[in-house]
Amino acid sequence: MTEVQLNPDFIIADEHSLRSLFAPTHDLAMQKCRNSLGKHAQDFIRRSPFLCIGSQGADGRADVSPRGDPPGFVTILDERTLAIPDRPGNNRLDTLSNIIANPTVGLLFIIPGFEDTLRVNGQATLTRDPALLESMAVAGRAPKLAIVVSVSEVFLHCAKAFRRSRLWSAEHFQDRAAMPSLIKMILDDTTGAPDDKDEMRKMDEGLEEDYRQSMY
Known about the structure:
InterPro entries: Pyridox_Oxase_FMN-dep, Pyridox_Oxase_N, Split_barrel_FMN-bd
Protein name: Pyridoxamine 5'-phosphate oxidase family protein
Radius of gyration: 21 Å
Domain Pyridoxamine 5'-phosphate oxidase N-terminal: 39-158
Organism: Shinella sumterensis
Structural class: alpha+beta
Pfam family, one: PNPOx_N
């Protein structure tokens, strides 16, 4: 595939050019931003089983990582502080390394069935505080560390993206079998997936077993 080259005549490179394309935002969109967690934001967080955390490394490389657990997995320490358990993953440590280099993070909280989302921005710190980690244990297993976020900005986000995508509409769910398994796609892009279907099936089953054994 030929690499696309953008026409420089149409590139938006400064904020004035950007904002000239759009009408001014309305007052409520500005007023809704808070620097602490109000009662509705706290309730939203307690109901949420899933969030995405955006971070950026010292070299400017951006990353967004999903985090999920039973509802209420994010601990509200006070109106300005959240704690997110770090569960076992692939040990790339992208988010954690980025936080050490640049503590600024953005969180997007999602609740299944809700079309609204909650956005939280702030400064993150990594901690191994035993008391905090033990309070986040699941199935008797505490996380190795927690991401503690000092909140600087909080606001509820409207439903347009979820309505456009029809994300929660069952009739628009796609069949997972329409694409290869995760293991096969990764192997296709790296070392090459085996042609033997039985061997591939065993690899898929091995991933499912790993999920069962290493969720916490």
